[in-house]
Amino acid sequence: MKEGMLRRRVTIALGGVMYALFAAFGWQAEHYGESRIAQGLLVSAALVLPVVAALRLLLGQSEKNANKPDWDGAFSAGKAFLLILVCYVPMFLIAFPGSFAYDVPFQLEQVFTGQYSSHHPLLHTLLMGGCVALGRALGNINLGAALYTLIQMTGLAACFALVCASIHRQSGARAAKLSAVFFALYPLHMMMAVNATKDVLFSGLFVLTLALMREVLVLEKKDKKLAAGIALCGAGMLLLRNNALYALAVWFVPALLLLRKKALRTALAALLAMALCMGANGVMKAATNAKEGDLCEMLSWPIQQMARVRNLHEDRLTPQEKQAIDELMPGESWRLYDPTISDPVKFEFDTAQLLSDPGRYAQAYVSIAVKCPKAYVDALLMHTYSFWYPYGEYGVSGYYLQMGISDLYYDWCDFERISSQSLAPRVLSSFSWRFGAQGAMQIPVVGYLFNMGLIVWVMLYFALREMYLGRWKSFVCALLPVLLWGTFLLGPVMAGRYIYPFVCCLPVMASRVREV
C-alpha cells in the first residue's frame, strides 16, 4: 500500500513539474522569442500546485475506472477497414491525384535519373517512384500518382483496422469501435492519407507494431503470428524512418530493466524487426547503388545554435570561433537563420568541411557554448517549443501540412509533371490555407484538434497514467512513442506530419487493458 501511495505521489509530482515547465517556457518562446529563465522558473513554481491538483483529479478518476469491465461484443476488422477507407475517399477526390509536395521532387529525381541516395527511405522512394514511372509509361503520369495515393490510403486503412482488431482483443469491442471512428473521422487522418510522404505509411506501421507489442507483452501471449507481425510491421516502420530505430534501440533498456524476462518475447520480436530492416535496406542499397545521406540531417540543433550566436552575439566570439562558423556555413549562410526551422542554414552547411577536422569544430562548438549558454538554450527553445507547448498561434516557418502539388525542384525534369486535377479546387485551396498553412489555429476549438503541443501533452498524460496505476507492462509500451517523440525533437522543424505518429498512437495508449 505504501509503495503504491509513493508511486502515485511521485508520478503526480513529476507530471506537475513537467507540465508547469512546459507551460512557462513555452509561453515565453511564443510571446518573447527567447527564454527569461528566472521568470520562467518562478512561473513554473506557481503553476506546479494547480497542475498537481488537476492531475490528482484526472488520475484519481482513471484509477476508479481502471477495473470497470469494458462493453464486450462482436467487432469486424473488415467493416472497420471499409469505414476508414470510405471516409478517406472524399479527400482523395478533393486532392486528386493526391498531395505530392515535401520531398517528392527529390525522390522522383532519383527514380528517373537512377542516382539514388539513402537520404530518403529507399522503400518509399521506390514504391512512390515506381507508381509514377508506371503512369508515365502508360501515357498519363497522374494515373501513376493516383495509384500510389490509393495504395497508401488502402495500406493506412488496413493498418488502422488491424490496430482496432488488436485493441478488441485487449480491451473489448467498445474500445475497438471508438478507435475505428477516431481513425475514420479525425480530420488529420483524412488529410495525411492522401499526402505522399513517408510519414503516412510509417505512422500506420508504427501504431500497428505498438499495438501488437502491447498485446504480446501485457497479455503475455505466446502466439507466433503476433511475434511475426511485430517483426514484419516493425521492419516496415524502421525502413521508413530511422527515428524509430533510435527509439527502439533505447526502448530495450527500460523494457528489460523494468520487466526483465517478461519483456524477452517482445524484445526478441523487435530485434528480429531490426535485423530484417538492416537486411532489406542492405539489399536495396546494393541494388540501387545508393549513396549515403548527408550527416548534417542529424545536426539541426548545433547548426541552429551556432547560427543564432553568429547572428546575435558576434561581439562575444573570437576571430577563430567566427572563422569556424563561417567555414561550416559558407557564404555567410548563417544569416539565413530562422529560429523555427533549420533547413535554410542546413541546406548550405558544409559537412565535408566538418569531417575534415571534427575535433577542431567540436572544440569551437563547446567554447561558444561556454560563452553563450543562453543563446544555445534559446535556439533549442525556439526550434522545438511547438512540439511540447499548446501554442495559441501556429508560429512555425513553413506549412503545418503541405497540400496539393509542388512546382519547385523539378529542374531535372524534361517531361510531363504531376499536376493537380482536383474535383473541388476551391475546397482544396481553402484547406491548403486554413488547415495546411495554419494548422486550423484561426478556427476556435477546431484548431486544437491539430495543435501539436496539445497532442503531445495528451500522449504524455497516458504514459503518466500507466505509471500512476503501476501497470508497468503498459507503461513500457507507452514509452516507445515517448522515445520516438524525443528523436523528433532533434529534427529540422516541428510540423504537422511529424506529429502524425503520435496522433495515431492515442487510441492504443488510451484503451484500458487488464495486465496478466
What does this structure look like?
This protein is mainly alpha-helical and 516 residues long. 69% of the residues lie in helices and 0% in strands.
Quick overview of this protein structure:
By secondary structure, the protein is mainly α. The chain has 22 helices and no strands.
Question: What labels would you give this structure?
Answer:
0% strand, 22 helices, 69% helix, single chain, mainly alpha, 516 residues
Query: How far apart are the first and last residues' alpha carbons, in Å?
Result: 20 Å
Largest sheet: none
Give the quaternary arrangement of the chains.
Answer: single chain
Q: In percent, how helical is the residue content?
A: 55-70%
Can you give the mean pLDDT? 94
Percentage of residues in strands: under 5%
The counted number of beta strands is 0
How are the SSEs placed, and which strands pair?
Layout lengths: L1 H31 L4 H29 L11 H19 L8 H10 L8 H16 L3 H31 L1 H13 L1 H7 L4 H21 L5 H17 L1 H18 L4 H25 L11 H13 L6 H10 L14 H4 L4 H6 L1 H14 L1 H12 L40 H13 L14 H17 L3 H17 L7 H15 L6
Helix pairs in contact: 1-2, 1-20, 3-6, 3-7, 3-8, 4-5, 5-6, 6-7, 6-9, 9-10, 9-21, 9-22, 10-11, 10-12, 11-12, 11-21, 13-18, 14-17, 17-18, 20-21, 20-22, 21-22
